[in-house]
Amino acid sequence: MDIALVISDVDGTLVTTDKRLTPATIAAVRRLEAAGIGFTVASSRPPVGMKGLVAELGLRLPIGAFNGTTIVGPDLASISQVLIPAGAAREAAERLSHGSVDVWVFARGAWSLRDPAAAYVDLERRTLGVGPEVVADLSPLLDEAQKVVGVSSDPDRLAALETTLAAALGGRATVHRSQPYYLDVTPPGIDKGSFVEAMARRLGISPQAIMTLGDGANDIAMFARSGLSIAMGNASLDVRHAASAVTAGNDADGFAEAITRYALPRDRT
User: Fold this and answer.
1) 49-96: per-residue pLDDT in tens?
2) pTM value?
3) How far is CA 203 from CA 172, 187, 207, in A?
4) Which domains, and CATH codes, for the chain?
5) Where are the alpha helices (DSSP H) in the chain?
6) Residues 6+ apart with CB under 8 A from 264
7) Among positive and negative, which fits the CA dihedral 41, 255, 263, 180?
8) Which residue from 38, 137, 258, 268 has the highest number of Cβ atoms inside 10 Å of its Cβ?
9) Residue 231 in 3-state DSSP?
10) pLDDT in tens, 154-179
């Protein structure tokens, strides 16, 4: 089936490690538009973190934020959103704190944390283009949390926490690492795969006509719901095995390579 829509993860996929869109990536998105193929993104980022992408890529379709649990238009106005159940958000934050990792909460349109000098705060500030709200107590935000994040420079610690936290929360929240150093807790039953299905319904196309690209464990749900899935060369072995094909890494214009090889009919091999 011809590809009608491409949905891409952002960090580790669409942008380089230093968070840039390369000229080849921008050109690839332009070629999709010229071929009449839709393009949008699904990311663990909050809506505000998509602002630069909208401007540079001229995005026109709805965007999946917070791993698809919040959908916004290209103007970043909310189309739909789901919150983490308050009890699950509170338990997640408590267990992450006891696991000796930093805790961030995304709620009420803001990114909040307790320690502005902690690891990865500067990286996230550059990535999102906005700074955090520094608070003494995150508890009041947990009743309205869209995402809770455990942050650590120890990837093995986060990997262990991913397993134990997912088991503890059961079906009350979704738990996945979006990066080796970020452990995301998001609302249950909704993920990037749900966003693929929502876009198929909105555009009146089959999910089999959708191509997805990603590099993280949170992208596997997106792969499972689309007709063609492409893992980045920098993805883990599990993610690569879950995809239909593997392209080059995000620092080697793997996104552009995949668009040329798989999405554009005249360029297929």
Assistant:
1) 999 999 999 999 999 999 999 999 999 999 999 999 999 999 999 999
2) 0.90
3) 30, 24, 10
4) 5-81+190-267 (3.40.50.1000), 86-186 (3.30.1240.10)
5) 23-34, 51-57, 86-98, 121-128, 155-169, 192-203, 220-225, 237-242, 254-258
6) 31, 32, 35, 37
7) negative
8) 258
9) strand
10) 999 999 999 999 999 999 999 999 88
